[in-house]
Every structure is written in structure tokens, then in C-alpha cells.
Design goal:
The complex is a heterodimer of chains A (342) and B (290).
Chain A lengths: L7 E4 L2 E4 L5 H21 L2 H26 L8 H16 L7 H20 L4 H20 L10 E2 L8 H28 L1 H11 L1 H6 L4 H26 L2 E2 L1 H4 L2 H14 L5 H16 L6 H16 L3 H10 L9 E4 L5
Antiparallel strand pairs in A: 1-2, 2-5, 3-4
Helix pairs in contact in A: 1-6, 2-6, 2-9, 2-11, 2-12, 3-4, 3-5, 3-9, 4-9, 6-9, 11-12, 11-13, 11-14, 12-14
Chain B lengths: L1 H30 L6 H14 L12 H26 L1 H23 L15 E5 L2 E4 H23 L1 H11 L1 H6 L4 H26 L6 H16 L4 H21 L4 H15 L13
Antiparallel strand pairs in B: 1-2
Helix pairs in contact in B: 1-5, 1-8, 1-9, 1-10, 2-4, 2-8, 2-9, 3-4, 3-8, 5-6, 5-8, 6-8, 9-10, 9-11, 10-11
The chains are: A mainly alpha (342), B mainly alpha (290).
Chain lengths: 342, 290
Amino acid sequence: MSLLDPSSRSLGALSIRRSTKPPIYTLVGVLILVALLTAAPWIFPAEWSAVLLNFFILVIMATMWNLLAGYAGMISIGQQAFIGLGAYATLFFALKGMNPFFTIPVSTVVCAVIAVPVTFLLFRLRGGYFAVATWVVSDTAMLVILTVAYLGGGTGKAMPGLQGLNPTQTAHDAYLATWFVALTVVTCTYLLLRSRMGLVLASIRDNEVAARSSGVNVQSARRLIFVVAAAGCGAAGAVLAISQPFVQASNVFSLQWAAEMLFVSMIGGLGTIEGPIIGSIIYFALQQTLQQYGVWYLIIFGSLAVVVALWQPKGIWGAFRERFHSELLPVGYWIRESKTKE
Amino acid sequence: MIWLNIVIQGALVGGFYALFACGLSLMFGVLKVINLAHGDMAVVAGYVAVFLAPHLHIPGLWSFVIVVPLFALVGYVLQRTLIQKSIDRDPFTTLLVTFGLSVVIENLLLEIYSANGQTVNIGQLITKSWHPASIIYVSYVSLGVLAVAVAVLGVLQLFLSKTGTGRLIRAVADDREAAQLSGANYRHIFGIAAAIAFATVALAGIAYGMMTQFAPTSGGINLLFAFEAVVIGGIGSLWGTLVGGIALGVAQQFGAHINPQYQVLAGNVLFLLVLAVRPQGLFGKKTALS
């Protein structure tokens, strides 16, 4: 289904619409933004594109976490397993002589393949036990990588194939790669949620028993989402590895990634496409402002996430959407009584 | 003899894991809450023992006299405020809130006390050990922690089965609505359960500080070990947690014997194996499984 589909269909007395505004506005806005961000390295100062690059990595991770928690109801605090594995897959293929930029899709697929057997273990637990078990998985993945001397063990290893090149050129390439990965991840998530799968996930979220009895295969829907989220985090890990001079296990497998993606999705708004993006903007604004005060930005951001979880569980975007009945990237349906009925 | 030593050392560490895990187990059993800040609470207890107890002229070994009641109070208050508020929303929110707390606590400790390692000072006792055979050394501290773990589990078991409050806790854990209809104030009962859980986590935190160095980030890995002990032993079984802790400890010692790098990995592998082969754990019921 694309943005250009007719936005309203008449069904008897009810009209079903997907967009709150004519979708052409959103499309034009998105196209302008895409053009601007693609040209960013040439029009903005170099420091800006460095910040934007990290922002895109966070957007990818948060979008994937939101897909897991906000749409499929799985809380994972172990997604850094796939960030780390994606980064190390990129390092591995680069060491084998591949161009680091071409390894991004390969690392993504590697993470998706690893995620499949992992789901069979993790799905034996639910709720909080599932959450902590994902953490065990990420810890195990890190410990296994640490034993591989070829990948640098505990000290890490420099990414080959990027040295000796023009640093400005490399920075531009890394920026563009990250930006395109982020764009792809958000677009694919959007299309996935607008497809039949989005409807299946909404039915599970609203009432799992009813969904099951209507023939929804809950387990396999969740499995698909977990694998997609692993692939997305793998891609984030791959671009992370390329954007940094050094790949180190304690960095790429850090629990801080889990904290960031969780807080960002919570504050922006779980279960919306826009939420994680808005959360990431707030996170970066806070981080850049409080840079010189150590980890205070994380303390403030974490407390803010707790407050949002307790008093505004739909997050900033959720609250905005409820108040103004407006959506930028709609994945649901608006059902209204049609005016012709009168 | 090497193998006997692995089993003995593993069992000693396992006692500590069980002590760490019983609060986690209780919180889940009664409140249905996985407290992701459990490990960080223990670390906070360690910091209180290191920095507050000397001010009150209490030696390190006896710091639990003030830290444990203090944490019971903290547990009750935290339960009646933040945790209860998140339980009222849904189980999903409890995870987000406790994870948020965990990150906030860890980073606050980093800001205040830096990343330097700390220990609870217990003087010469730390170096003393019992030496029954050629290569086997049993540290008095570790033996003491194992004894405390067994005592805590025993007292908890007796408390839950024999006393009125214990019966109320079990009633609320089994069926909250029915207990409420019979006049139980479940929020207060939850508070008591949380107070007990926090008291045990304070003990675990002090024990950890006596056995080894800790830092603001030590909470996470200990939560993992405690969690693995609970799942290996079987969710919902107190004595299972002790057996699970010992199994985990022995697996880690065995891994470390092959290669020090494999210590934690061997424990994780045991956990994943149990999950694959016997997901209800050694003594568990199938209730926590999906």
C-alpha cells in the first residue's frame, strides 16, 4: 500500500479513512526533508552531520524497539546483542576484504538469521522473564565475541578498508550510509505496519485471546517482529561500526543502547511511528545542552521516562495525537459515519 | 581433588546468588513484578554500608544492623508509591519504571562516588579461611554468606507458611481479588513483601561488598546471575533458587577452571540449556512460561 492510494473508501454508511489530512501534504513534506537530509553534508558544517549521524543511529534503534514493545508487546533489554553482532559482522567481512559499506546488508541478514533460533529459546519465557533473558542473550553474545582473537578480543580492532582514505570523504559516506539505513528502516516499518501484519499486531495488542480465536498466529507474528527488530538493530550496529574508527565489544554491546532506545520510545510515544523520532530529537537536544555535566543528561532523561511511563504512557506524540486528532504517518484507520447518511 | 574444589567453591558462590535472588523471587511471586533495579538496590546498600556506617561508628561487619531496616523501609515506601502506581497501569509499565530507576540509580552513583571500586571493610576476617585439605580453602566470609542465605531462605519459608502475615502474603499472591474480598488490604501486603525483598537485597549487597569490590555498575551483572539462579532452580520455588544458585556457581567455577574467560559464559550456557531442555527449571511449576 503506498501513500498515493485513495485515502477514503466508502463502505455503506461508514467512511473509512487512513489519513487525517490529504496525504499529498505529508508526501511533499517527507520528500523535502529527504532531499534536505541527503544534501546535509554539503550544506551544513561537519559537526552537524556528525551529530545527525548519531541521531540517525538512535532513530533506527528506537524504531526497532518501538516495533517490539509498542506494537508486539515484547520488552527487550537485550537488543544490544544485535547491535554488537551487526558491528562485529561488519568488522569480520571487512577483515575478509569486503568494502565496509557493502557489508551493511550482509550484516543485517546475519543478525536476522541469528535471531530465528534465539526466538525459540526466548519465547519460552514471558513478560519480565523474557526481558531479562534477552539481556542474558546479549551478555552471552558479547562473551562469545570476546573469545575470538581474530576479532580483537577485549581490546577491539580498527575497521579495515577505511584508513588512508580522505577523512572528509569517509565522513560523508558514513553519513549517507547511516541516513539511508535510517530512511529504509523507518519506511519499511511504516509499510509493515500499514500491511496486514499491522492489523494482526493491533489485534494482538488490543485483545490477545480474541485475536487467537480469530485465527491469528500470535507466536509467529511475534517471531517475525523479533527477527525484523534484530535485523534493524544489526544494520544500526553495522553503520555504528563504520562511523567509528574502532570496534570494541564493551561499546557496541553496551546496555546503554537498550536504555537509550527504551527511554526515547517511551518519551516520544510507544506504538506510533513518529514517537521514537520525536523522542530521539529530545534526547539529542538534552544531550547536546548538558554535554559538559557528565552523565546528568542520562539521569534526567531516565527520570523523565519514568514520569512519562506513569503519568503519560502514550508519550508526547500520543498526547499530541489525542488532543489534535492529527497524524503525520498514519498506520491505522479512522472510521466515521459518512455525511451522506443524513 | 580439583573437581571437589570446583564444587565447593561453586556452592559457596551459589549461596550468595541465592541470597541475591530470593528478593527477586519474592517480588515476582507476590507482586508479579520483575524489579530490574534489584541489582542496583544491592549496590546502593553496599554504598550505604561503606559510607554511612563509619559515620555512626558501626564496624563494617555489623553495618547490616542499620542498612537492613533502612532498606525494608525504603522497600515499603517505594512499593506504596512508584511500584504500586505502575502495577495499577500494567505489568509492562513496571518493567519500564524499574528499568528507568535502574539506569538513574547507576548513573547517580557514578556521579556521586565515581567508578572506583569499594569494599565493606571487615578487617582481617577477609583473609581467614578454613583449610581442610591440600588445595581446598574455604573462606570464612563465603561460608558465612552461604549460611546466611540458607538461614534467610529457611526463615522466609517458615514466615510464609506459619505466620498470619505470611499466609496473607500467599493469599494475595494466589488470588488478589479473592483476598481483597475477604478483607485483606493488598497494597499494605504488597508493601510488606517489598520490605522483606529489599531487606534481603540489602543483606546481599553488604555480603557482596565483603566478598569482593563493587562499583556503580556492579548491579546489572548480579541481577543477571540472580535471575539465572531463579530460572535454573525453577520460578516460584525458594529452595529451588538455592539449588539453582549452586548449580550456576558450580558451572561458572567449572568454566573458569577451563579458561578464566569462560567463567560467566559457562553460567549463561547452563541457563540457556535449562531453558531449552527443561524450561520450568529444576523444581518449578509451569506458571511463568508462555
